[in-house]
Amino acid sequence: MKITIIAVGKLKEKYLKLGIQEYSKRLGAYATLDMIEVPDEKAPENMSEAEMVEVKRKEGEKILAKIGADSFVISLEINGDMLTSEDFAKKLDNLATHGKSKITLVIGGSLGLSQEVQKRSDYALSFSKMTFPHQLMRLILVEQIYRAFRINRGEPYHK
């Protein structure tokens, strides 16, 4: 399986980079992982609704340009489906069983995803109703993908 994570913004925090590197290395035994960063748009503090939509639209164009036509797209959205780790593992396993070997997971910027990206998405996933920094979500997502492969192989992994 080829997994691509597209994320808005540059990851700067060393501790997050180290965690992502560790789980990416572990994941290498199960799948190919590609991390793509697209630049975030400058967003002043007090934006109008129209300005927010425009920022998301511009970021969305960059995201869409990186998504392969044959990829199954999972967007991370606050209003998406919330799954247990076991259910997420089943989701990935079912995709592989049905010939979906290219999976793209999308993490938007601080304002979220554009409507165009949401329309291109095949499945909306939420990790929580809470808001997490989008940089931290990269680490959480890679860990959950790794956990899913361990679950699907019946291999032990701490709970």
Structure, explained:
It is an enzyme of class 2 (transferase). S-adenosyl-L-methionine binds at residues 76, 108, 127-132. With 159 residues, the protein is α/β, with parallel strands linked by helices. It has one domain (2-152): SPOUT methyltransferase, trefoil knot domain (Alpha/beta knot). 44% of the residues lie in helices and 22% in strands. It contains five helices and five strands. The chain has helices at residues 14-27, 49-66, 85-97, 115-120, 134-152, and strands at residues 2-8, 32-38, 72-82, 102-107, 123-126. It has a five-stranded parallel sheet. β1, α1 and β2 form a beta-alpha-beta unit. α3 (85-97) crosses α5 (134-152). The longest helix has 19 residues, at 134-152. The radius of gyration is 15 Å and the shape is globular.
